[in-house]
């Protein structure tokens, strides 16, 4: 009898789980259903470009219908309400419910506000296509408003958090703001673009040399770095830093950290600090019919440290999960997760970037890093057949 595979989330982990499960199981062997909040697979590694108006929405939001055409995978657009891992059922907010033989939880991460007073209420985030659209519309509105009001808070842009998300966003804004200012008759010299980071340095995953390269490149384009200065409070338009100084701004984008998914953390499976724990085969350590892909899981490396929640890991986890579910259904041995790290690339705007190629010690600066980032995106799109959908 055909088994039911239910996949929650159509990000990197969920989509690749579905494609891999279908590649390993016939329609007679398994019915596969993917549930996702929106009808698109979002290329979230490129959202910073959309947030600055540097790429079109259709380049980063690929319709699932087109992506999965002919693959015999059911798509349900809906919001998960509850996950019953004992009864093996999932309920959606629209009242429908789904039973499963194997469940894949691939619901991603959530923004961590670390309990900082006023932060959530007074900031924008960059985790989805709609967030990116909101940021771009907001930035344009503030510049337009400044052209009339000359209120400095409208000309002040603050990015909170100097990890990859914050730095990639500030790089795009540094490139795009001058043109937006010109269009609205505003002098770019009136704009303040801050990146506020709690730690002594931005992008600690890179060598000091690459970090300096990033800082110099961005400072040349008008970014002001405030490091060793955590944001401690936000009240309306006033952002307070640890040393007591304040910045008045009508635009704070918070990229200061991520945490596990609340639905996953509260569904009754075993978790570690809000992220689900998994065995080698990426099954929940408490519920083996539940598999975990991407940021909602925590995978520990050989030194006992958790791997960072990245797209490349989510993609690889999804591929293994699809194959492992097929193996489990057929009574065969499941494989262990052996991640391959191709490296880390950070774009610093349209034409600049830095990168460290995994395990080689090779570092990239400038155009080679930008090109490598583009190539890595193209490789992913080709892999999921996304170039085909973009051609529509
Ligand atoms: P992050 O957790 O990596 O970085 C958040 C930064 O915010 C940290 O540097 C932290 O010190 C800082 N911060 C925390 N509290 C603060 C405060 N109160 N005030 C100011 N700064 C504060 O988050 P991220 O950048 O969103 O990345 C999340 C994950 O996604 C990471 O694993 C990252 O590797 C991955 N990612 C990868 C890419 C890429 O490969 N190009 C791009 C984006 C994200």
From TrEMBL:
One of its GO terms (molecular function) is oxidoreductase activity. Its cofactor is FAD. It is an enzyme of class 1 (oxidoreductase). Keywords: FAD, Flavoprotein, Oxidoreductase. SUPFAM superfamilies: FAD/NAD(P)-binding domain. Its EC number is 1.6.5.-. InterPro entries: FAD/NAD-bd_sf, FAD/NAD-binding_dom, NADH-Q_oxidoreductase. Residues 4-318 form the FAD/NAD(P)-binding domain. PANTHER family: 64 KDA MITOCHONDRIAL NADH DEHYDROGENASE (EUROFUNG), APOPTOSIS-INDUCING FACTOR 1. Belongs to the NADH dehydrogenase family. This is NAD(P)/FAD-dependent oxidoreductase.
């Amino acid at each position: 009898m055909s088994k039911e595979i239910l996949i929650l989330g159509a990000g990197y982990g969920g989509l690749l789980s579905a494609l891999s499960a279908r590649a390993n199981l016939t329609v007679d062997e398994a019915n596969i259903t993917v549930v996702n909040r929106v009808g698109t697979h979002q290329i979230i590694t490129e959202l910073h470009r959309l947030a600055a108006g540097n790429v079109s929405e259709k380049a980063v939001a690929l319709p699932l219908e087109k992506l999965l055409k002919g693959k015999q995978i059911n798509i349900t657009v809906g919001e998960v309400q509850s996950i019953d891992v004992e009864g093996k059922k999932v309920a959606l907010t629209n009242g429908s419910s789904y039973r499963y033989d194997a469940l894949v939880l691939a619901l991603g991460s959530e923004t961590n506000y670390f309990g900082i007073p006023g932060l959530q209420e007074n900031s924008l985030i960059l985790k989805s296509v709609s967030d990116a659209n909101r940021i771009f519309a907001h930035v344009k509105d503030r510049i337009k408003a400044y052209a009339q009001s000359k209120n400095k808070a409208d000309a002040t842009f603050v990015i909170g958090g100097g990890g990859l998300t914050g730095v990639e966003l500030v790089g795009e804004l540094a490139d795009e703001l001058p043109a937006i200012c010109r269009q609205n008759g505003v002098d770019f010299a009136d704009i303040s673009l801050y990146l506020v980071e709690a730690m002594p340095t931005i992008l600690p995953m890179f060598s000091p040399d690459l970090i300096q390269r990033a800082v110099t490149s961005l400072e040349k384009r008008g970014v002001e770095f405030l490091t060793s200065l955590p944001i401690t409070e936000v009240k309306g338009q006033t952002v307070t830093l640890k040393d007591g100084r304040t910045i008045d701004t009508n635009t704070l984008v918070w990229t200061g950290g991520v945490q596990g998914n609340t639905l996953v953390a509260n569904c009754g499976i075993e978790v570690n600090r809000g992220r689900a724990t998994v065995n080698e085969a990426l099954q929940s350590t408490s519920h083996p019919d539940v598999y975990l892909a991407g940021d909602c899981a925590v995978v520990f490396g050989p030194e006992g440290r958790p791997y960072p929640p990245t797209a490349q890991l989510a993609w690889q986890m999804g591929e293994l999960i699809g194959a492992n579910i097929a193996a489990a259904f057929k009574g065969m041995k499941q494989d262990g997760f052996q991640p391959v790290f191709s490296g880390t690339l950070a774009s610093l705007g349209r034409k600049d970037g830095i990168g460290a190629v995994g395990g080689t010690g090779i570092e990239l600066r400038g155009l080679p890093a930008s090109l490598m980032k583009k190539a890595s995106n193209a490789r992913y799109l080709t892999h999921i057949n996304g170039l085909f959908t973009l051609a529509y």
